[in-house]
Amino acid sequence: MIKRRFLPSGQISKIGFILFFSGLGLAAVRTVWSVYLKSFLGNDSYVGFLITAFTIIGIISYIVLIPLVEKKNNAGLFVLSTFLFFLSYLLFTIFTTLYAVIILGVLTSILASLRVTTIGIIISDKSKNSELSKNEGFVYTFFNLAWLVGPLFAGFISEKYGFSFVFLISSILMFLSLILFKFFKISDTKKPKRLDKNLYKLTKDFFNNKDRVFSYIISGGINFWWGLIYVFMPLYIIEMGFSTFIVGLFLFAIVAPLIFFSYYFGNLAGKKGFKKISFLGYLILSILAIFSFIFSFNPIIVMILLVLASVGGAMIESTSEAYFFDIIKKKQREKYYGVYNTAIDLNHLATSFIGAIILLFLPFKFLFLFFGVFMLFFSIVSLKLKNIVESRRKN
User: What one-character-per-residue DSSP string does 156-201 give?
Assistant: First the structure.
């Protein structure tokens, strides 16, 4: 009865289950990543610049990998990327020099681009037109559940046993998700097609359409916000005298609203449209970021405000990708999805680089003001979106 009433049909439910385990591994590493890099670099600003370099690699990878994604089976590419993630995290436990960390950081940046592109296309291909945003909300709920649990145990493990043990556990989780993917027999069949080898023209064509441009901006804005949460907030919490366990506890709490509201807002967007939900989501982020600037003298209040802001994040995260797939033709998904996904790393890059510059000259609290202003910008841009209502469309 539960499956019939609440779970998506077909392989979507299985994909959500797979992403839970791989998401656990990713979330655990992301929780300690900036603090781990600081153990080598010794400076918050240097950490921001190094993450910026990794992000540039990710952006380039989204574009360069487009012909590969068009040519090869997406399920096979997802398996490959997950297996290489498993090996990379395992190598992090063996090699602990700065040069090794940089090489492995570059590799995982490329793999992340391939993984995001392939699984996104698989989900969209297995969804009906009238259920895409609901399915996205369902999958994001499982993925965010991993990001709820992952930071909590990563903070505890790193405090007790060190960073290497976090990478070891994460490698095991990635391997488990790989086994589940094969066990559930997630398939992806394709017909031969003409490959887009002129990547410059492809990218230019993508941005020649204003609806795709607005979708690109809006989907990138939420990743801009997560840069504050996952790159700089761990550093802020440590500097305020708290332990890595508190970092994990904070990131655990950050994801809780996403668990409770992602599916609800994804389903609501399918029935009511995207524009108002996106506008309100970014407005909530803007207001609470500015309040964090005002109350920056009290880290407890700041952490509470940012946890509440995740309600706004749930409005955007579970709907922005579905909106992109709604405004393009199905045959354009593999062609344009890689370009669209550069918004993820481009905004991560902007966050880490600009944040690093701000921290060179100004106290940490000005980061909150900076993010508050930018979230207001994304809120205004949201009003340019088409108000697509999926429930009125034919499957």
Answer: HHHHHH-HHHHHHHHHHHHHHHHHHHHHTT-------------HHH
What contacts 314, CB < 8 A, 6 or more positions away?
257, 258, 260, 261, 262, 264, 265, 281
Which two tokens mark 138? 């369902």
Amino acid identity of 73?
A: N
Amino acid at 83: F
What DSSP assignment string belongs to 189-220? ----------HHHHHHHHHTSHHHHHHHHHHH
Q: What is the residue-wise DSSP string for 217-263?
A: HHHHHHHHHHHIIIIIHHHHHHHTT--HHHHHHHHHHHHHHHHHHHH
How far apart are the C-alpha atoms of 374 and 366, rounded to whole Å?
Answer: 13
pLDDT in tens, 189-215: 655 555 556 677 878 888 888 888 888
Q: Is the dihedral of CA 132, 135, 136, 137 positive or negative?
A: positive
Question: Using an 8 Å Cβ cutoff, are 267 and 137 in contact?
Answer: yes
Tell me the C-alpha distance between 245 and 285, whole Å: 25
By the 8 A CB rule, do 118 and 74 touch? yes
Q: How far apart are the first and last CA of the chain?
A: 24
pLDDT of residue 210: 87
Residues in Cβ contact with 343 at an 8 Å cutoff, skipping those fewer than 6 apart: 216, 217, 219, 220, 223
Confidence (pLDDT) at 351: 84
Which pair of structure tokens corresponds to residue 312? Answer: 């706004």
- What confidence tens digit (pLDDT) does each residue in 56-66 have? 898 888 888 88
∠ CA 198-199-204 to the nearest 5 degrees? 105
Q: Which residues of the chain have pLDDT under 70?
A: 1-10, 127-134, 188-198, 270, 318, 388-395
Q: How many CA atoms lie within 13 A of 333 on its CB side?
A: 20
Distance CA 102, CA 33 (A): 12
Half-sphere exposure of 257 (CA within 13 A, CB side): 19
C-alpha distances in angstroms, 134 versus 23, 127, 269, 276, 306? Answer: 20, 9, 8, 17, 26
Angstrom distance (rounded) from CA 71 to CA 195:
7
